[in-house]
Design goal:
It contains 2 helices and 8 strands. The protein has about 140 residues and is of the alpha+beta class.
């Protein structure tokens, strides 16, 4: 994931960009200043149509991916998030790796006070997998 958050420039918002990043490494999570620093509040970002590729079978995996975070000084710009999440469409990775990578990239981009990424993946072989990762690391996940 490339880093644009320190420049203060939003390169996607307001532009008719059609080319999606080829991978999460190429994608950029852009941020903007949190204008309500004095109040802790939760932002819930909901992606019910997330998709990636199984690294073993090459078959598509789909999930309902949710990101909850309490912002610090910066917030994630949602168009860049859309492009970032879409970059996983042709990316081969295990479900658990994806959830943890998304959390790491969110934390790197905006340094939230707290964050949770939850992926509820569609059943494969009769098993439905839900994975949740939290920041800061906790012995027990946040109850949301």
């Amino acid at each position: 994931m490339s880093d644009i958050s320190t420049t203060g420039e939003l390169s996607l918002l307001g532009r008719s960009e059609h080319r999606l990043p080829a991978s999460p490494d190429e994608a950029a999570l852009e941020t903007f200043p949190n204008r309500t620093l004095g109040r802790p509040y939760t932002i819930h970002l909901d992606c019910p149509e997330f998709s990636s590729i199984c690294p073993v079978t090459g078959q598509p995996d789909t999930a309902h991916l949710e990101i909850f975070y309490i912002p610090g000084e910066r917030c994630i710009e949602t168009k860049s998030l859309k492009f970032y999440l879409a970059s996983y469409r042709n990316h081969a990775s295990f479900n658990e790796e994806i959830v943890n990578r998304v959390l790491d990239d969110v934390v790197k981009a905006c340094a939230p006070r707290q964050a949770v990424v939850r992926g509820k993946f569609s059943p494969r072989g009769g098993i439905q997998l839900t994975c949740e990762a939290t920041f800061p690391n906790r012995d027990e996940p946040l109850k949301l």
